[in-house]
Specification:
- The chain has 34 helices and eleven strands.
- Helix 9 runs antiparallel to helix 12, helix 18 packs parallel to helix 20 and helix 22 packs parallel to helix 24.
- It is an alpha+beta fold.
């Protein structure tokens, strides 16, 4: 590292100059940076040495950041590829016949279609989920997109025409077909002037601003999602991963999935999207900055062109340097050089400032809103001063230092080195004495996307396993376990995959009632492996809580869930499972708070709403229970638990016919005889006694004593009901929940039956609880 003498060290007031030269140096080809600095600063040795020292400290961390980002982009691209294996051309949906495939991606396939009912001619675009993307969360996102489009009304936002489900049950939506090209292609094809490009941007910004006014954040603004038609009008498309702000309609908020993976387009994502953090309107501001950058320079603001702190070459510099980078032969053409120089000079100043303010890493340092950014572009076009002003990085740093120039310089170098060290420690093998290295052609660890693995194959298998596990059908659970096993074959040290395997095995035991001790032993081993690799992984502690729950250790389960929540307060599954365990031991008020928190954190989780419905029913909040149950049904129509929960809620509301419709032919192994029991009670309420007697006879001969007893109690045969209960073993968890909740008046109508109090003590003791209030 170059060492400057004390005499040549710059004063604190010179930080802005150092920063300016340093940033300009970073914009030069890497191999020429030192020579460029020595040439530019030949007359100022102190300035030269300061910049060279920053370059020396900057290089290692820049390379590490670029490697990590390249790996993450590869993972995202691999999980959201553009393949579409089923050709639906020629099929009919509603009154439209599908034509050619226009495109496909992670949120569905889009077909050109024509109206085919003879009424009138109409060309539309039909977006439909393909067979490989029908997991509960993708379906919910797709439905949310339909809801979002229906809430927007703007001439430059694609209009929703219709929507529904195909005969096979796949959701679709029909929108206007835009016969146009991507906006970046359009400005090049039409050779638009800078003023025309900025005017086009203003129209796009208006459309985005309208969406924000309706509480919608697009989250995927890129040229391919902005088509310009033949009349030169831009149209904003594809709200497939958009987010509605809480005040607009919280139920269609699209959060990160429980696996930590968030859909995005590599190269067009905001820093907070890359890091998996919460996304607000300022994320769209950042993406509009990327869009404006591309419109005025003709090139993308690629991350590989940034330094370790994420700075991007300003548009004017990008235009100036592109000629030697892209085609060195043109560098000797005087006419081309003059044209490039003129365009670069037109960007320097206002446009550079506007774009670079929108592209600041910290959301709080960007434009406060799209309208503020739009106003500055308009001010530039009007020839009036813009509001944004550049703020040099080192000047900000210097303003916080009150020491002498020498100590300030030393402090800055410490910061630079700490950044580099932090990146090393977060990289694969960072801080490991063994100094392990990644295999050839293996991407680096990318913590921001939730993948603590060096293997792309392991990451993909894990993500697919999680998507399958969310479906909760017997076949999908088995398939999920297989994917987790594949992930661990690719990387046995992948802690997330061990948690996935544990969750899959525990789901087999809890939901599918395998009753196989070997499955639980294997799940326990997987949890231990995960925690040995990472003791602070919330998913592993949640799995540990579920294992304790299966063994009827309520204190152990609640303690593990609490530990998971302490490690990751935003992990919805921990809150949801904690709510269920609290409900089983009768702590309903605490349970409903946890259940509500789970739905807030993951509004696309059917399990969270099933839990909220059950706890609400236990507290006699029937309307809330109905609402939650129907939301769960909407999210996962094929999951039997949602059907049973809605039926129970309908029964509680007195809608016996509705309950019977949902219960007909339903199979829910984990609920024992609950389907037959609730059906019998509904039939009795409707005076369909003969049908009820058939079910009652089945329950009398069946293994579920509680299911039989509750029907007897409903018939007024309370003594027989108690005799049936006292002759049976411990209540199942489903029975425990209802015995303390909606069924309590059947067994203890006056609130003073000693048999009920004794049964309650026995129930709690079976779960390891001696003080049910503690």
């Amino acid at each position: 590292m170059t060492n400057a003498s004390d005499d040549n060290k710059p004063a604190t007031a010179d930080w802005a100059r150092i920063d300016g030269v340093f940033q300009r140096a970073l914009e030069q080809p890497e191999e020429e940076r030192r020579h460029w600095v020595e040439r530019e600063c030949a007359a100022e040795p102190g300035l030269r040495d300061a910049v060279l020292e920053l370059l020396d400290a900057d290089a290692p961390s820049e390379r590490l950041f670029e490697a990590a980002e390249s790996a993450r982009d590869a993972m995202v691209a691999a999980n959201f590829d553009d393949t579409h294996s089923v050709d639906l051309a020629g099929k009919r949906i509603g009154v439209y016949r599908l034509g050619k495939l226009l495109g496909a991606g992670g949120m569905g396939a889009v077909y050109l279609a024509e109206r085919d009912d003879g009424e009138f001619q109409q060309t539309v675009a039909v977006k439909i989920l393909p067979a490989w993307a029908t997991d509960a969360q993708t379906v919910a996102r797709f439905r949310a997109e339909r809801q979002i489009l229906s809430s927007l009304c703007h001439p430059n936002i694609t209009r929703l025409i219709d929507g529904g489900q195909t005969g096979d049950g796949y959701p679709y939506l029909i929108t206007d077909y835009i016969d146009g090209v991507a906006v970046n292609e359009y400005v090049q094809q039409q050779a638009l002037s800078l003023q025309e490009r900025l005017e086009l941007f203003l129209i796009i910004a208006d459309a985005v601003g309208h969406a924000h006014e309706q509480g919608v954040v697009h989250r995927d603004l890129k040229p391919a999602n902005i088509l310009v038609d033949r009349a030169g009008r831009p149209h904003l498309l594809d709200f497939g991963i958009a987010k509605l702000q809480a005040e607009a309609a919280s139920w269609v908020t699209l959060p990160r999935t429980m696996t930590g993976f968030s859909p995005m387009t590599p190269g067009y994502e905001s820093p907070e999207q890359r890091a998996g953090r919460n996304v607000e309107t300022t994320s769209d501001v950042y993406q509009l900055g990327l869009l404006l950058y591309e419109l005025v320079t003709g090139q993308r603001a690629r991350r590989s062109e940034t330094d370790a702190r994420g700075r991007i070459s300003s548009p004017s510099i990008a235009v100036q340097t592109s000629i030697t980078r892209d085609d060195p032969a043109e560098a000797s053409d005087t006419a081309i050089l003059a044209s490039v120089d003129s365009w670069s000079r037109s960007l320097s100043g206002d446009i550079d400032t506007i774009v670079m303010k929108a592209l600041r890493d910290a959301p709080s340092e960007r434009y406060e809103s799209v309208s503020h950014m739009r106003d500055d572009v308009q001010r530039h076009l009007d020839g009036t001063p813009i509001q944004a002003r550049p703020e040099p990085v080192l000047q900000r740093a210097a303003s916080g230092l009150r020491a002498s120039p020498n100590s300030a310089w030393a402090a800055l170098l410490v910061v630079v080195m700490l950044v580099a060290i932090a990146v090393v420690l977060r990289s694969p093998g960072g801080g490991n004495e063994a100094g392990s290295t990644s295999p050839p052609d293996t991407p680096a660890v990318v913590e921001a996307s939730g993948a603590s693995t060096e293997s792309l194959a392991a990451f993909r298998a894990y993500e697919r396993g999680r998507a399958l596990l969310d479906q909760r059908s017997p076949d999908s659970v088995v398939a999920a376990i297989g994917h987790f096993e594949q992930s661990l074959e690719a990387d046995p040290a992948y802690a997330e995959a061990w948690t996935g395997l544990a969750d899959g095995l525990l789901t087999q035991a809890a939901y599918l009632q395998t009753n196989d001790p070997a499955v639980l032993e294997r799940a326990a081993g997987a949890i231990d492996q995960a925690l040995s690799l990472d003791p602070n992984i919330a998913k592993a502690w949640t799995a540990k809580g579920t294992l304790a729950y299966i063994y009827r250790d309520a204190p152990g389960a609640i303690g593990a869930y609490d530990q998971a929540i302490e490690l990751d307060p935003a992990y919805a599954s921990a809150h949801q499972l904690r709510a269920y365990q609290l409900g089983i031991i009768g702590r309903f008020e605490e349970a409903i708070a946890s259940a509500q928190r789970a739905t807030e954190l993951d509004p696309l989780s059917p399990e969270a709403f099933v839990g909220l419905s059950g706890v609400s029913l236990s507290l006699g909040r029937f309307e809330e229970s109905i609402t939650a149950a129907r939301r769960a049904r909407e999210l996962s129509p094929a999951w039997a638990s949602t059907q049973l929960t809605e039926a129970q809620a309908l029964f509680g509301m007195g809608d016996f016919e509705g309950a019977l419709r949902l219960l007909e032919g339903l199979q829910v192994p984990w609920a024992g005889g609950a389907v037959a029991s609730t059906s019998a009670r509904a039939l009795l309420a409707l005076n369909r006694d003969e049908e009820a007697e058939v079910l009652l006879a089945q329950l009398a001969d069946g293994p579920d004593a509680y299911a039989h007893a509750v029907v007897l109690a409903d018939l007024g045969e309370r003594e027989q009901a108690w005799a049936r209960l006292e002759a049976s073993g411990p209540l199942s968890e489903f029975a425990a929940l209802y015995f303390q909740g909606p069924d309590r008046p059947l067994f203890d109508p006056t609130g003073d039956d000693p048999r009920y109090a004794a049964a309650l003590r026995s129930l709690h003791a079976a779960w390891g609880i001696t003080d049910p209030s503690g």
